Amino acid sequence: MSDSEEEESPDHQLKLVVLGDGTTGKTSLATRFAQERFGKQYKQTIGLDFFLRRILLPGNLNVTLQVWDVGGQTIGGKMLDKYIYGAQGILLVYDITNGQSFENLEDWYNVVKKVNEESERQPLVALVGNKIDLEHIRTVKADKHQRFCLENNLSSHFVSAKTGDSVFLCFQRIAADILGIKLNKAELEQSQRVVKADIVNYSQEPVPRTVNPPRSSMCAVQ
Questions:
Q1: Given this model, what pLDDT does residue 191 score?
Q2: How distant, in Å, are the alpha carbons of 22, 39, 213 from that of 49?
Q3: Which ranges of the chain have pLDDT less than 50?
């Protein structure tokens, strides 16, 4: 092994699962993060879409984030527990202009808890309020969001997949929290200025519902 290879920081791989009702912007959120773009036309995710993006965290730590975008209609599906299994992070996404999408998160969260009730390592769960570009027609008040976070020990995030506001910061903070890395103010401000990074689009097509999650996505965090 060469000296340069010895100096390279090993990659960490994290599986993040995005859950929530349809039309809350889950796919737009994943696409904005992984590909730095926003699709104006709504296309319902059937089953699962899968994205990858590599980011760099403090300490020269390379982290590959696997983002599993789960279709909103799959809450009663047989594959949902398999999609969630092995995830180090869960993003519970709702639309701040749609009160019902917030109320239904209780059902999504219950599925997460059921899947992980016997797991030694519990996933980090984040509450993500999307569409903050529509603040003027918000129906889910911020205090209601924060109360749900406090009651369930969730991390709190507000983003706009449409404008990109705080999207990278959301995923960066979640990855850092999972790995026990503290981000200082300068690093958080720098992340807001990130426009391009090492982006890998693994697949834009839905993964067939009969496919089992790849073993590589279930590695333990070191």
A1: 56
A2: 13, 15, 12
A3: 1-6, 193-222
Nearest to 48 by CA among 23, 25, 27, 76: 27
pTM above 0.85, yes or no: no
Separate counts of helices (H) and strands (E) for the chain? 8, 7
* Residues near 165 by beta carbon (within 8 Å), at least 6 away in sequence: 132, 133, 159
AA letter at 191: S
pLDDT at 184: 80
207: how many CB neighbours lie within 10 A of its CB?
18
* SS3 category, 110: helix
Domain 12-191 classification at class level: alpha beta
What is the torsion angle, in degrees rounded to the nearest 10, for the CA atoms of residue 60, residue 63, residue 109 and residue 72?
140
What are the structure tokens assigned to 73, written together? Answer: 């209609």
Exposure class string for 38-47: b at 16+ Cβ within 10 A, else e: beeeeeebeb
Q: Taking Cα atoms as reference points, which of 182, 99, 162, 39 lies closest to residue 172?
A: 182
